[in-house]
Design brief:
Elements lengths: L19 H27 L8 H68 L6 H41 L4 H9 L6 H11 L3 H9 L3 H10 L1 H4 L7 H24 L5 H18 L14 E7 L8 E6 L7 E6 L9 H17 L5 E7 L14 H8 L5 H20 L6 E7 L1 H11 L6 E5 L9 H4 L3 E5 L27 E2 L12 H6 L4 H11 L22 H29 L5
Parallel strand pairs: 3-4, 3-5, 5-6, 6-7, 7-8
Antiparallel strand pairs: 1-2, 2-4
Helix pairs in contact: 1-2, 1-9, 2-3, 2-4, 2-7, 6-13, 9-10, 10-11, 11-17, 13-14
């Protein structure tokens, strides 16, 4: 048989030398430095000598002015460097996506080449020669085209790195910094900040305004006022993340230095402790990557380390709510504060992974802890304020105030959403379900609401609570859920008369020492699976559990549960003691 020229395999597309997450880290570090320099510059520019007079005052003012001017040149240079690092990260993310596409094409093409080669070898005559040659020519053309595309990809990667280096070198001297500072096109952050403040509370208008800004203007605002940008509903989540990470890094550096100098006030000590907890929580998941962009999977959407009676506030998302098709906002309850972030993020991650596994579209899962939830240690006699704070769990005022903040947060997420509106699920656990309930009565714009381990919500029925679909996870051996209807926080949503859909969670263990585990295990097993179904828009797959009192069925009251659980613990202890005694006697262990 005449030889057929089967094309050679197309070589693999090279790996990226630089990673998008690394570019993010570079931009964050540069942004933190920029924020710190601007803070110093602001102080220098406003510093005066009101108690002085004459030549001493003039000399002081002159020195302060000169120092501020020098810092202004550094600010301008750093702004340019941060913008360049951001742009580099965006280009790397685009290159990563292109590489994935090229890899899929290359693997498919090489498989076709192998198939043709095998058919040519197996052929015993020349009757298929025209077909083989035609297929070989087509594969050769496609292979040549793919090699050109891979080479172009490699050149684009090299260009991205070259452009970053050039941008950084263009601002690495004092003269260049001064030239940038004097550029009339340089954004004026003062006017921009006034406009931003005026739009706070109107996330839709703020989102439209932000989209109309030049990137340099956005960056100037981000580094001059990160606390505003990072917590402004309507600003894109990725931009809020940049501002908050920059502010976090600046706080850790600034207050660590003040601590070494012995200058920290009481409030600053709490603030830096909160910042450290947020940093620790993010660090635990820093190796997780968004598979599409290669950037960090976590987004720091809210960072308020000095709020909420010093407990601090934070919101972290796994995935980008602005681009995801399914978004959940998880509201934790009692003892929620910045210090509890590390221990709570694992629940939101478990939900995120379960929802992603549903394979019904992209997912973003938010842990929202930016309200003044009851906290403190009720058993610490040396902390009366903590005891008082913890006692707030019996009242609804913190839930009401938290519900308003939650509504503002969700409005902001809705406003910055890109493309078709995401399917949005709000989830409240324990006191967080009461907080969510107050937000729902105020018209929280969600599609589904999930109430887990709820001590009560402020409505008699699901219809009065919200127009969204209401789902209830409530274990009969969870004592907190038996407070609804008899406690001060409102109606039990698991009750038959409430009208929500109660899903399968199991009842939990009956022994007294395991009652707390019953309350904290809703992000496990069948309960987690059902919440993931709801989040992914697969409500039809939820396995249901009858509401309390359905069909006249009986259930334990809180007092009955406590008695029964104590009896179960005693019985279990006696059984274990009997087993031990039997084994010791049987094997001669007792003398």
């Amino acid at each position: 048989m005449t030889i057929v020229q089967v094309p050679a395999h197309v070589p693999a597309c090279p790996l990226l030398d630089s990673k998008p997450a690394g570019a993010q880290d570079l931009a964050t570090d540069l942004r933190a430095v920029t924020i710190a320099v601007k803070n110093v510059q602001d102080r220098a520019a406003s510093a005066g000598a009101p108690a002085w007079a004459g030549d001493a005052a003039d000399a002081h003012d002159h020195a302060s002015t000169r120092f501020a001017a020098r810092l202004d040149a550094g600010e301008a240079a750093l702004d340019r460097a941060v913008t360049a690092a951001d742009r580099f990260g965006e280009r790397l993310a685009g290159l990563l996506g292109r590489r994935d596409d090229l890899t899929v094409r290359r693997n498919g093409l090489n498989d076709e080449i192998d198939a043709l080669a095998a058919e040519v070898v197996a052929a015993t005559g020349d009757d298929r020669l025209p077909e083989f040659r035609q297929r070989a020519a087509q594969l050769t053309a496609r292979a040549d085209d793919l090699r050109v595309r891979i080479a172009a990809w490699g050149q684009d990667e090299a260009d991205a790195e070259t452009d970053l280096v050039a941008a950084l070198r263009s601002v690495d001297t004092t003269v260049e910094g001064r030239e940038l500072a004097a550029d009339p096109a340089r954004p004026g952050s003062a006017d921009l900040a006034r406009r931003l403040r005026a739009l706070l509370g109107d996330p839709a208008a703020l989102a439209a305004w932000w989209r109309g800004l030049r990137r340099a203007e956005q960056e100037a605002l981000t580094t001059e006022h990160p606390e505003l940008v990072g917590n402004a509903g309507g600003v894109p989540v990725s931009d809020r993340d940049e501002a908050n990470r920059g502010e976090l890094a600046r706080d850790l550096d600034l207050y660590a230095q003040r601590g070494e100098d012995g200058q920290l006030t009481h409030d600053e000590k709490r603030l830096v402790a909160n910042a450290s907890h947020v940093h620790q929580g993010l660090e635990e998941y820093r190796d997780l990557r968004d598979t599409g962009t290669g950037t960090h999977l976590t987004e720091l959407i809210a960072y308020t380390p000095g709020l909420h009676s010093g407990d601090g506030g934070v919101a972290v998302s796994f995935g980008d709510p602005d681009t995801a098709g399914h978004v959940s906002v998880n509201v934790p309850g009692l003892t929620t504060e910045a210090a509890s972030l590390s221990g709570n993020l694992d629940k939101t991650l478990a939900l995120h992974q379960a929802a992603v596994a549903e394979d019904r579209g992209s997912v973003a899962s938010v842990h929202w802890a930016d309200y003044d939830a009851p906290s403190g240690n009720p058993l610490n006699p040396f902390d009366p304020f903590g005891q008082l704070d913890f006692g707030g769990v019996a009242l609804s005022d913190k839930a009401e105030a938290g519900g308003e903040r939650l509504s503002d947060f969700v409005d902001g997420i809705r406003a910055s959403d890109q493309g078709a509106p995401a399917h949005l699920t709000a989830i409240g656990h324990s006191y967080g379900s009461t907080t969510l309930g107050h937000a729902l009565t105020g018209g929280l714009p969600v599609d589904d609401a999930v109430l887990l381990g709820s001590p009560g919500v402020p409505a008699a029925t699901a219809g009065e609570l919200t127009s969204a679909e209401v789902w209830v996870g409530s274990k009969d051996h969870d004592p907190v859920t038996l407070l609804g209807g008899v406690g001060p926080l409102g109606q039990d949503p698991a009750d038959d008369g409430f009208g929500g859909t109660r899903f399968e969670t199991g009842d939990g263990a009956l022994r007294a020492e395991e009652l707390l585990d019953n309350h904290t295990s809703y992000f496990e097993g069948a309960s987690l699976d059902n919440v993931a179904h709801v989040v992914a828009g697969a409500g039809g797959e939820v396995s249901e559990q009858p509401p309390r009192g359905a069909g006249g069925s009986a259930h334990l009251t809180l007092s009955e549960l406590l008695v029964a659980s104590s009896a179960a613990s005693v019985g279990h202890g006696l059984a274990e003691a009997g087993t031990w005694l039997w084994e010791q006697t049987r094997f001669g262990g007792l003398r």
